[in-house]
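Worked example 2:
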Amino acid sequence: MPNPAFDPVAATEALLGSVPPEAVARSNAYFEGGYWLLLWGALVSLAAAFALLHFHLAARLRDLVERVSPRPWLALLLFAPPFIVAITLLELPWAIYAGFAREHQYGFATQSFGAWLADAAVALAVSVVQLTPLIGVAYLLIRRAGRAWWAWAGGVAVAFLAFGLWIGPLYVEPLFNRYTPLEAGPLRDEILSLARANGIPSDDVLVVDASRQTTRISANVSGLFGAARIALNDNLLREGTPEEIRAVLGHEMGHYAMGHASSLLLQMGLLLGIGFLFADRAFAWALHRFGARWRVRGLADPAGLPILYAAFVVFFFAATPIYKTIFRVGEARADLFGLNAAREPDGFASVTLKLGSYRKLAPSRLEEALLFDHPSGKSRIEMAMRWKAEQLRAAAAAPAPAGKRRVAPRAASRRRAESNGGLVACRARAPRARASRGGLLPLRRREP
Protein backbone atom coordinates (compact mmCIF):
# COMPACT_ATOMS: atom_id res chain seq x y z
CA MET A 1 0.00 0.00 0.00
CA PRO A 2 1.31 3.51 -0.80
CA ASN A 3 2.28 5.55 2.21
CA PRO A 4 -0.82 7.38 3.52
CA ALA A 5 1.23 10.59 3.83
CA PHE A 6 0.63 11.13 0.10
CA ASP A 7 -2.77 10.34 -1.38
CA PRO A 8 -2.62 10.34 -5.22
CA VAL A 9 -6.40 10.67 -5.60
CA ALA A 10 -6.54 13.65 -3.22
CA ALA A 11 -3.51 15.20 -4.95
CA THR A 12 -5.21 14.82 -8.34
CA GLU A 13 -8.40 16.45 -7.11
CA ALA A 14 -6.42 19.28 -5.52
CA LEU A 15 -4.58 19.99 -8.75
CA LEU A 16 -7.77 19.91 -10.83
CA GLY A 17 -9.45 22.14 -8.24
CA SER A 18 -6.69 24.74 -8.61
CA VAL A 19 -7.95 25.68 -12.08
CA PRO A 20 -10.42 28.60 -11.90
CA PRO A 21 -14.02 27.62 -12.77
CA GLU A 22 -14.21 30.20 -15.57
CA ALA A 23 -11.10 28.71 -17.20
CA VAL A 24 -12.60 25.22 -16.94
CA ALA A 25 -15.86 26.42 -18.51
CA ARG A 26 -14.04 28.13 -21.36
CA SER A 27 -11.83 25.11 -22.08
CA ASN A 28 -14.82 22.77 -21.98
CA ALA A 29 -16.77 24.99 -24.37
CA TYR A 30 -13.89 25.04 -26.84
CA PHE A 31 -13.19 21.31 -26.64
CA GLU A 32 -16.83 20.21 -26.76
CA GLY A 33 -17.38 22.52 -29.70
CA GLY A 34 -14.78 20.41 -31.48
CA TYR A 35 -17.22 17.50 -31.43
CA TRP A 36 -19.61 19.51 -33.55
CA LEU A 37 -16.73 20.53 -35.82
CA LEU A 38 -16.26 16.85 -36.65
CA LEU A 39 -19.87 16.56 -37.75
CA TRP A 40 -20.10 19.85 -39.63
CA GLY A 41 -16.72 19.32 -41.25
CA ALA A 42 -17.89 15.96 -42.59
CA LEU A 43 -21.12 17.51 -43.90
CA VAL A 44 -19.20 20.31 -45.62
CA SER A 45 -16.92 17.76 -47.31
CA LEU A 46 -19.94 15.75 -48.47
CA ALA A 47 -21.54 18.92 -49.82
CA ALA A 48 -18.34 19.75 -51.75
CA ALA A 49 -18.25 16.27 -53.30
CA PHE A 50 -21.95 16.48 -54.17
CA ALA A 51 -21.43 19.85 -55.87
CA LEU A 52 -18.70 18.41 -58.10
CA LEU A 53 -21.02 15.56 -59.09
CA HIS A 54 -24.39 17.31 -59.31
CA PHE A 55 -23.14 20.19 -61.45
CA HIS A 56 -21.04 17.81 -63.60
CA LEU A 57 -17.84 19.66 -62.71
CA ALA A 58 -15.95 16.39 -62.27
CA ALA A 59 -17.33 15.02 -65.56
CA ARG A 60 -16.38 18.20 -67.43
CA LEU A 61 -12.89 18.11 -65.98
CA ARG A 62 -12.56 14.49 -67.10
CA ASP A 63 -13.68 15.37 -70.62
CA LEU A 64 -11.18 18.21 -70.72
CA VAL A 65 -8.16 16.15 -69.66
CA GLU A 66 -9.14 13.34 -72.04
CA ARG A 67 -9.06 15.82 -74.91
CA VAL A 68 -5.62 16.94 -73.80
CA SER A 69 -4.28 13.39 -73.54
CA PRO A 70 -5.91 10.12 -74.63
CA ARG A 71 -3.55 8.16 -72.39
CA PRO A 72 -5.45 7.21 -69.21
CA TRP A 73 -2.50 7.51 -66.84
CA LEU A 74 -1.56 10.96 -68.09
CA ALA A 75 -5.17 12.12 -68.12
CA LEU A 76 -5.48 11.04 -64.50
CA LEU A 77 -2.35 12.91 -63.46
CA LEU A 78 -3.84 15.98 -65.12
CA PHE A 79 -7.19 15.37 -63.39
CA ALA A 80 -5.98 14.94 -59.80
CA PRO A 81 -4.43 18.37 -59.06
CA PRO A 82 -7.46 20.43 -60.22
CA PHE A 83 -9.72 18.06 -58.28
CA ILE A 84 -7.72 18.56 -55.06
CA VAL A 85 -7.72 22.34 -55.58
CA ALA A 86 -11.47 22.37 -56.30
CA ILE A 87 -12.32 20.38 -53.15
CA THR A 88 -10.09 22.65 -51.07
CA LEU A 89 -11.64 25.84 -52.45
CA LEU A 90 -15.17 24.55 -51.91
CA GLU A 91 -14.30 23.76 -48.30
CA LEU A 92 -12.32 26.97 -47.77
CA PRO A 93 -15.11 29.01 -46.10
CA TRP A 94 -15.51 26.28 -43.50
CA ALA A 95 -11.73 26.02 -43.05
CA ILE A 96 -11.55 29.78 -42.48
CA TYR A 97 -14.16 29.55 -39.75
CA ALA A 98 -12.86 26.40 -38.05
CA GLY A 99 -9.14 27.05 -38.47
CA PHE A 100 -8.93 30.83 -38.24
CA ALA A 101 -12.02 32.69 -37.01
CA ARG A 102 -12.90 30.28 -34.21
CA GLU A 103 -9.30 30.07 -33.03
CA HIS A 104 -9.13 33.85 -32.76
CA GLN A 105 -12.54 33.89 -31.09
CA TYR A 106 -11.11 31.79 -28.26
CA GLY A 107 -7.85 33.73 -28.21
CA PHE A 108 -5.78 30.90 -29.59
CA ALA A 109 -4.19 31.97 -32.86
CA THR A 110 -1.44 34.54 -33.34
CA GLN A 111 -1.45 34.72 -37.15
CA SER A 112 -2.96 37.41 -39.31
CA PHE A 113 -5.42 36.23 -41.92
CA GLY A 114 -2.86 36.80 -44.67
CA ALA A 115 -0.26 34.66 -42.90
CA TRP A 116 -2.84 31.95 -42.22
CA LEU A 117 -3.89 31.97 -45.87
CA ALA A 118 -0.26 31.73 -46.98
CA ASP A 119 0.25 28.65 -44.80
CA ALA A 120 -2.98 27.18 -46.19
CA ALA A 121 -1.65 27.68 -49.72
CA VAL A 122 1.58 25.88 -48.86
CA ALA A 123 -0.41 23.04 -47.28
CA LEU A 124 -2.51 22.80 -50.43
CA ALA A 125 0.63 22.52 -52.56
CA VAL A 126 1.92 19.76 -50.28
CA SER A 127 -1.43 17.97 -50.58
CA VAL A 128 -1.24 18.11 -54.37
CA VAL A 129 2.28 16.68 -54.37
CA GLN A 130 1.38 13.92 -51.90
CA LEU A 131 -2.05 12.92 -53.18
CA THR A 132 -1.59 13.08 -56.95
CA PRO A 133 0.64 9.98 -57.14
CA LEU A 134 -1.55 8.18 -54.60
CA ILE A 135 -4.64 8.82 -56.71
CA GLY A 136 -2.74 7.78 -59.85
CA VAL A 137 -1.62 4.49 -58.32
CA ALA A 138 -5.12 3.80 -56.95
CA TYR A 139 -6.68 4.15 -60.40
CA LEU A 140 -3.92 2.06 -61.96
CA LEU A 141 -4.83 -0.68 -59.48
CA ILE A 142 -8.52 -0.29 -60.31
CA ARG A 143 -7.73 -1.02 -63.96
CA ARG A 144 -5.22 -3.81 -63.31
CA ALA A 145 -6.34 -5.56 -60.10
CA GLY A 146 -10.08 -5.65 -60.73
CA ARG A 147 -12.30 -6.36 -57.71
CA ALA A 148 -9.29 -6.73 -55.40
CA TRP A 149 -8.10 -3.19 -56.13
CA TRP A 150 -9.07 -1.96 -52.65
CA ALA A 151 -6.69 -4.38 -50.89
CA TRP A 152 -3.74 -3.33 -53.05
CA ALA A 153 -4.69 0.34 -52.70
CA GLY A 154 -4.73 -0.02 -48.92
CA GLY A 155 -1.17 -1.29 -49.03
CA VAL A 156 -0.07 1.61 -51.22
CA ALA A 157 -1.80 4.06 -48.87
CA VAL A 158 0.29 2.68 -46.01
CA ALA A 159 3.43 3.65 -47.91
CA PHE A 160 2.15 7.20 -48.31
CA LEU A 161 1.17 7.27 -44.64
CA ALA A 162 4.73 6.23 -43.78
CA PHE A 163 5.92 9.29 -45.69
CA GLY A 164 3.76 11.50 -43.50
CA LEU A 165 4.93 9.88 -40.28
CA TRP A 166 8.66 9.70 -40.95
CA ILE A 167 9.49 12.16 -43.72
CA GLY A 168 6.91 14.85 -43.01
CA PRO A 169 8.33 16.09 -39.69
CA LEU A 170 11.82 16.29 -41.16
CA TYR A 171 11.12 17.82 -44.58
CA VAL A 172 7.56 19.16 -44.69
CA GLU A 173 7.14 20.93 -41.37
CA PRO A 174 10.17 23.17 -42.03
CA LEU A 175 8.10 24.66 -44.88
CA PHE A 176 5.92 26.28 -42.21
CA ASN A 177 8.35 27.01 -39.38
CA ARG A 178 11.98 27.79 -38.74
CA TYR A 179 14.10 25.36 -36.70
CA THR A 180 17.09 26.74 -34.80
CA PRO A 181 19.46 25.05 -32.34
CA LEU A 182 18.69 25.45 -28.64
CA GLU A 183 21.42 27.52 -27.07
CA ALA A 184 24.01 25.67 -25.02
CA GLY A 185 23.25 25.44 -21.34
CA PRO A 186 22.02 23.19 -18.54
CA LEU A 187 18.61 22.58 -20.14
CA ARG A 188 20.11 21.44 -23.45
CA ASP A 189 22.56 19.20 -21.60
CA GLU A 190 19.76 17.65 -19.55
CA ILE A 191 17.63 16.96 -22.64
CA LEU A 192 20.53 15.32 -24.47
CA SER A 193 21.41 13.30 -21.37
CA LEU A 194 17.81 12.10 -21.20
CA ALA A 195 18.01 11.18 -24.88
CA ARG A 196 21.25 9.21 -24.48
CA ALA A 197 19.86 7.37 -21.45
CA ASN A 198 16.91 6.19 -23.53
CA GLY A 199 18.70 5.27 -26.74
CA ILE A 200 17.72 8.37 -28.75
CA PRO A 201 20.50 8.98 -31.34
CA SER A 202 20.66 12.77 -31.36
CA ASP A 203 23.35 15.30 -30.55
CA ASP A 204 21.29 18.49 -30.90
CA VAL A 205 18.00 20.04 -29.73
CA LEU A 206 16.03 22.36 -32.01
CA VAL A 207 13.56 25.11 -31.23
CA VAL A 208 10.55 25.73 -33.51
CA ASP A 209 9.15 29.24 -33.91
CA ALA A 210 5.56 28.04 -33.42
CA SER A 211 4.62 31.30 -31.69
CA ARG A 212 4.19 32.89 -35.11
CA GLN A 213 1.05 30.73 -35.47
CA THR A 214 -0.14 29.68 -32.03
CA THR A 215 0.46 29.75 -28.31
CA ARG A 216 0.12 26.00 -27.86
CA ILE A 217 3.01 24.14 -26.31
CA SER A 218 4.36 21.12 -28.18
CA ALA A 219 7.43 19.04 -28.90
CA ASN A 220 8.44 16.22 -31.20
CA VAL A 221 11.05 13.49 -31.48
CA SER A 222 11.18 12.01 -34.97
CA GLY A 223 13.71 10.28 -37.13
CA LEU A 224 14.60 7.79 -39.81
CA PHE A 225 17.50 5.44 -40.55
CA GLY A 226 19.09 5.64 -37.11
CA ALA A 227 18.91 9.41 -36.73
CA ALA A 228 16.56 11.41 -34.53
CA ARG A 229 15.55 15.04 -34.33
CA ILE A 230 14.53 16.47 -30.96
CA ALA A 231 12.46 19.63 -31.27
CA LEU A 232 10.41 21.74 -28.87
CA ASN A 233 8.50 24.84 -29.74
CA ASP A 234 9.35 28.27 -28.45
CA ASN A 235 6.12 28.48 -26.44
CA LEU A 236 7.14 25.47 -24.36
CA LEU A 237 10.64 26.88 -23.97
CA ARG A 238 9.29 30.24 -22.83
CA GLU A 239 6.37 29.13 -20.66
CA GLY A 240 7.52 25.75 -19.33
CA THR A 241 9.65 25.15 -16.28
CA PRO A 242 12.70 22.90 -16.67
CA GLU A 243 10.73 20.13 -14.94
CA GLU A 244 7.82 20.53 -17.36
CA ILE A 245 10.12 20.56 -20.39
CA ARG A 246 11.84 17.38 -19.24
CA ALA A 247 8.44 15.76 -18.65
CA VAL A 248 7.21 16.67 -22.15
CA LEU A 249 10.43 15.55 -23.84
CA GLY A 250 10.37 12.30 -21.89
CA HIS A 251 6.89 11.66 -23.28
CA GLU A 252 7.97 12.43 -26.84
CA MET A 253 11.06 10.26 -26.51
CA GLY A 254 8.72 7.47 -25.46
CA HIS A 255 7.00 7.61 -28.85
CA TYR A 256 10.36 7.25 -30.58
CA ALA A 257 11.89 4.63 -28.27
CA MET A 258 8.80 2.39 -28.34
CA GLY A 259 8.46 2.60 -32.13
CA HIS A 260 5.02 4.14 -32.05
CA ALA A 261 5.33 5.37 -35.63
CA SER A 262 5.62 1.78 -36.84
CA SER A 263 2.75 0.48 -34.70
CA LEU A 264 0.58 3.43 -35.69
CA LEU A 265 1.39 2.71 -39.32
CA LEU A 266 0.21 -0.89 -38.99
CA GLN A 267 -2.99 -0.02 -37.15
CA MET A 268 -3.96 2.89 -39.36
CA GLY A 269 -2.96 0.85 -42.41
CA LEU A 270 -5.49 -1.81 -41.43
CA LEU A 271 -8.12 0.89 -40.92
CA LEU A 272 -7.29 2.37 -44.33
CA GLY A 273 -7.68 -1.03 -45.95
CA ILE A 274 -11.16 -1.35 -44.46
CA GLY A 275 -11.85 2.19 -45.65
CA PHE A 276 -10.95 1.27 -49.22
CA LEU A 277 -13.23 -1.75 -49.03
CA PHE A 278 -16.06 0.47 -47.79
CA ALA A 279 -15.34 2.97 -50.59
CA ASP A 280 -15.52 0.17 -53.16
CA ARG A 281 -18.93 -0.96 -51.93
CA ALA A 282 -20.24 2.59 -51.54
CA PHE A 283 -19.14 3.44 -55.07
CA ALA A 284 -20.98 0.45 -56.52
CA TRP A 285 -24.18 1.56 -54.78
CA ALA A 286 -23.83 5.21 -55.82
CA LEU A 287 -22.99 4.28 -59.42
CA HIS A 288 -26.11 2.14 -59.68
CA ARG A 289 -28.34 4.88 -58.26
CA PHE A 290 -26.82 8.07 -59.68
CA GLY A 291 -24.10 7.15 -62.20
CA ALA A 292 -26.04 8.20 -65.29
CA ARG A 293 -27.24 11.41 -63.66
CA TRP A 294 -23.70 12.37 -62.64
CA ARG A 295 -22.18 11.19 -65.96
CA VAL A 296 -19.88 8.73 -64.22
CA ARG A 297 -19.01 5.74 -66.42
CA GLY A 298 -17.62 3.35 -63.84
CA LEU A 299 -15.08 2.78 -61.07
CA ALA A 300 -12.13 3.47 -63.38
CA ASP A 301 -13.61 6.83 -64.45
CA PRO A 302 -11.86 9.71 -62.62
CA ALA A 303 -15.13 11.65 -62.73
CA GLY A 304 -16.22 9.28 -59.94
CA LEU A 305 -13.40 10.42 -57.65
CA PRO A 306 -15.78 12.66 -55.63
CA ILE A 307 -17.79 9.51 -54.80
CA LEU A 308 -14.70 7.81 -53.39
CA TYR A 309 -13.81 10.98 -51.50
CA ALA A 310 -17.29 11.16 -49.98
CA ALA A 311 -17.12 7.48 -49.03
CA PHE A 312 -13.89 8.06 -47.10
CA VAL A 313 -15.41 11.08 -45.36
CA VAL A 314 -18.34 8.95 -44.17
CA PHE A 315 -16.09 6.04 -43.19
CA PHE A 316 -13.64 8.05 -41.09
CA PHE A 317 -16.40 10.03 -39.43
CA ALA A 318 -18.01 6.74 -38.37
CA ALA A 319 -14.61 5.37 -37.34
CA THR A 320 -13.80 8.37 -35.13
CA PRO A 321 -13.88 6.36 -31.86
CA ILE A 322 -11.59 3.72 -33.39
CA TYR A 323 -8.77 5.93 -34.62
CA LYS A 324 -8.98 8.20 -31.58
CA THR A 325 -8.58 5.14 -29.35
CA ILE A 326 -5.54 4.06 -31.39
CA PHE A 327 -3.94 7.46 -30.75
CA ARG A 328 -5.01 7.62 -27.09
CA VAL A 329 -3.55 4.22 -26.20
CA GLY A 330 -0.21 5.19 -27.71
CA GLU A 331 -0.23 8.51 -25.87
CA ALA A 332 -0.94 6.78 -22.54
CA ARG A 333 2.00 4.45 -23.07
CA ALA A 334 4.25 7.39 -23.90
CA ASP A 335 3.03 9.12 -20.72
CA LEU A 336 4.18 6.20 -18.59
CA PHE A 337 7.49 5.96 -20.46
CA GLY A 338 8.04 9.67 -19.87
CA LEU A 339 7.38 9.37 -16.15
CA ASN A 340 9.90 6.54 -15.82
CA ALA A 341 12.45 8.31 -18.02
CA ALA A 342 12.24 11.93 -16.84
CA ARG A 343 11.03 11.17 -13.29
CA GLU A 344 9.14 14.46 -13.16
CA PRO A 345 5.61 13.65 -11.95
CA ASP A 346 5.00 17.17 -10.67
CA GLY A 347 6.28 18.72 -13.89
CA PHE A 348 4.10 16.34 -15.88
CA ALA A 349 1.05 17.27 -13.79
CA SER A 350 1.60 21.01 -14.06
CA VAL A 351 2.16 20.93 -17.83
CA THR A 352 -1.00 18.82 -18.16
CA LEU A 353 -2.91 21.65 -16.48
CA LYS A 354 -1.48 24.06 -19.03
CA LEU A 355 -2.59 21.76 -21.84
CA GLY A 356 -5.99 21.80 -20.16
CA SER A 357 -6.47 25.37 -21.31
CA TYR A 358 -7.69 23.90 -24.60
CA ARG A 359 -8.38 20.29 -23.64
CA LYS A 360 -11.24 19.20 -21.43
CA LEU A 361 -9.66 18.15 -18.15
CA ALA A 362 -12.33 15.95 -16.57
CA PRO A 363 -14.70 14.30 -19.08
CA SER A 364 -16.91 11.32 -18.40
CA ARG A 365 -15.36 7.89 -18.99
CA LEU A 366 -17.56 7.31 -22.04
CA GLU A 367 -16.69 10.71 -23.52
CA GLU A 368 -12.98 10.05 -23.07
CA ALA A 369 -13.27 6.57 -24.58
CA LEU A 370 -15.14 7.73 -27.69
CA LEU A 371 -13.81 11.19 -28.48
CA PHE A 372 -10.36 11.76 -26.92
CA ASP A 373 -7.16 11.16 -28.90
CA HIS A 374 -5.10 11.73 -25.71
CA PRO A 375 -5.84 10.62 -22.17
CA SER A 376 -7.84 13.29 -20.35
CA GLY A 377 -6.06 15.68 -18.02
CA LYS A 378 -7.54 13.92 -15.02
CA SER A 379 -6.31 10.50 -16.22
CA ARG A 380 -2.82 11.83 -16.90
CA ILE A 381 -2.48 13.66 -13.60
CA GLU A 382 -3.78 10.68 -11.64
CA MET A 383 -1.25 8.43 -13.40
CA ALA A 384 1.54 10.85 -12.46
CA MET A 385 0.41 11.08 -8.85
CA ARG A 386 0.15 7.30 -8.50
CA TRP A 387 3.66 7.00 -9.95
CA LYS A 388 4.85 9.55 -7.41
CA ALA A 389 3.10 7.78 -4.53
CA GLU A 390 4.87 4.54 -5.40
CA GLN A 391 8.24 6.30 -5.55
CA LEU A 392 7.62 7.83 -2.13
CA ARG A 393 6.65 4.43 -0.75
CA ALA A 394 9.79 2.84 -2.19
CA ALA A 395 11.97 5.62 -0.81
CA ALA A 396 10.39 5.29 2.64
CA ALA A 397 10.96 1.51 2.64
CA ALA A 398 14.59 1.70 1.47
CA PRO A 399 17.22 0.85 4.15
CA ALA A 400 19.16 3.77 5.54
CA PRO A 401 22.83 4.05 4.44
CA ALA A 402 25.33 2.52 6.84
CA GLY A 403 26.52 4.91 9.54
CA LYS A 404 23.53 7.23 9.19
CA ARG A 405 20.58 7.46 11.50
CA ARG A 406 17.44 6.07 9.86
CA VAL A 407 14.59 8.54 9.79
CA ALA A 408 11.21 7.14 10.69
CA PRO A 409 9.51 6.13 7.40
CA ARG A 410 6.38 8.11 8.04
CA ALA A 411 8.26 11.28 8.87
CA ALA A 412 10.59 10.85 5.88
CA SER A 413 7.67 10.24 3.56
CA ARG A 414 5.85 13.24 4.93
CA ARG A 415 8.84 15.50 4.43
CA ARG A 416 9.34 14.28 0.84
CA ALA A 417 5.68 14.72 0.10
CA GLU A 418 5.80 18.24 1.46
CA SER A 419 8.94 19.11 -0.48
CA ASN A 420 7.92 17.41 -3.74
CA GLY A 421 4.20 17.34 -3.68
CA GLY A 422 2.79 20.77 -3.18
CA LEU A 423 2.49 21.99 -6.72
CA VAL A 424 1.78 25.67 -6.91
CA ALA A 425 -1.74 26.14 -8.20
CA CYS A 426 -1.47 26.46 -11.95
CA ARG A 427 -4.05 28.87 -13.30
CA ALA A 428 -5.10 27.98 -16.79
CA ARG A 429 -4.91 30.78 -19.29
CA ALA A 430 -7.40 31.64 -21.91
CA PRO A 431 -7.33 28.68 -24.29
CA ARG A 432 -4.88 28.87 -27.10
CA ALA A 433 -4.73 26.84 -30.25
CA ARG A 434 -3.10 26.84 -33.59
CA ALA A 435 -4.96 27.79 -36.75
CA SER A 436 -5.37 24.77 -38.95
CA ARG A 437 -3.79 24.80 -42.36
CA GLY A 438 -5.98 24.31 -45.34
CA GLY A 439 -5.82 21.54 -47.88
CA LEU A 440 -6.80 17.91 -47.88
CA LEU A 441 -3.90 16.89 -45.63
CA PRO A 442 -3.65 19.36 -42.72
CA LEU A 443 -0.22 19.08 -41.17
CA ARG A 444 -0.26 18.82 -37.41
CA ARG A 445 2.71 18.78 -35.13
CA ARG A 446 2.48 16.29 -32.33
CA GLU A 447 1.38 17.67 -28.99
CA PRO A 448 2.09 15.95 -25.68
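The first strand starts at residue 179 and ends at 181. The chain has 16 helices and four strands.
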